Amino acid sequence: MDASLLHANAKKMVAPGKGLLAADESTASCEKRFAAVGVPCTEETRRAYRELIVVAPGIEEYVSGIIFYDETIRQSTKDGKRFPDVLLEKGMLPGIKVDTGAKDLALHAGEKITEGLDGLRERLAEYKTFGAAFAKWRAVITIGEGVPSEACIDANAEAMARYAALCQEADIVPIVEPEVLIDGDHSLEQCYQATLAIHKKLFEKLAEEGVHLEGAILKSSMVIAGTQAAKQSSVHEVAEATVRCLKENAPADLAGIVFLSGGQGDEQATAHLDAMNKTGALPWPLTFSYSRAIQNPVLKIWAADTHANTEKAQAALLFRAKMNSLAALGKYASEMESERPY
Ligand code: 13P
To answer: Does 228 reside within a domain?
Structure first.
């Protein structure tokens, strides 16, 4: 393990004003997203769409790295340049989603356990040859009657810590992503408690496994009321509760914390990140690692005319990336949205 390389790459991922773009939707997720905008989902349409993102001129100003899916890290531009190589040439880091999905947790109805540890050492070694500098593993935590259970918290934290250790052994920065789902009618307080519980267990397990926090990134969901909750959370409430929750368990030597958007609106996700970064000095950089909250307008514009709309879709991508970059610096204002090119 090269601790200084891990440290340097982790630092680069969360450099001031930069964040990550998650473009690691599995083929099944891609099917859903493409179907929603009326585009057939084939290997070629997925490639063409991802090419638009990867080659977008200037994206490197706001985005430090892009997370790929197994199919995507192997794909190339129409001129034959591999996607990870395009990123490396632009000074960005390629990342790879390595879990194999969240499956039903046995004897715990409605709860999930993320799989993918078997053969992971070998898969990481192969991804390394493509240039992967970091990896991602997503665990899913549901809030409901009696859940999350201790069994679900424990099993997912254990798997994430074992994944993180394997990544660091291979000099790949692990992103550990426990996503507390926004679906449901739970309150902000219930979300706070669930997030607190998984973070607490996760950092205990990471310490047990000997994971170097300076070379690791936490990808967190925000503390927010469920989408069906009678009382929705304000921007201030989300920012305050999320930062408070993170401070409870995330050690100061952690390289950084990035957020998923989890089904929040595009501008809402940006406003929440900005508000957190406006709360004053924090122990770690806080930035974005959004998929939908960046890609929503991009995919929609591209889908309207996949041949003619590449530049318009890229302009939307750049705009959302820039807004989130400003939010990562606490310099965003909602009035800026009037400048948007879509
Ligand atoms: P969303 O921003 O769409 O939640 O996706 C982020 C991600 O990487 C989920 O694993």
So the answer is: yes
Amino acid type, 95: G
Burial class (CB within 10 angstroms; exposed 0-12, middle 13-18, buried 19+) of 288: buried
CA–centroid distance, residue 230 to ligand 1 (Å): 25
How far is ligand 1, taken at its centre, from the CA of residue 97, in Å?
A: 11
Domain presence at residue 238: yes
pLDDT along the chain (342 residues), means of 10: 98 98 98 98 98 98 99 98 98 98 98 98 98 99 97 98 99 99 98 98 98 98 98 98 98 98 98 97 98 98 97 98 98 98 97
CATH number of domain containing 95: 3.20.20.70
Number of folded domains that form the chain: 1
Listing DSSP states for 19-65 in one string gives EEEE----HHHHHHHHHHTT----HHHHHHHHHHHHT-TTGGGTEEE
Domain that holds residue 289: 3-332
Instruction: Tell me if residue 219 is catalytic.
Output: yes
Asked if residue 339 is part of any domain, the answer here is no
Q: Is 317 helix (H, G, I), strand (E, B) or coil?
A: helix
Residue ranges lining ligand 1, Cβ < 6 Å:
22, 138, 177, 260-262, 290-293
pTM: predicted TM-score of the whole model, two decimal places: 0.98
Q: Does 340 map to a domain?
A: no
Index of the ligand 1 atom closest to the CA of residue 269: 2
Looking at residue 280, its pLDDT comes to 87
Q: How far is the CA of 279 from the centre of ligand 1 (A)?
A: 24
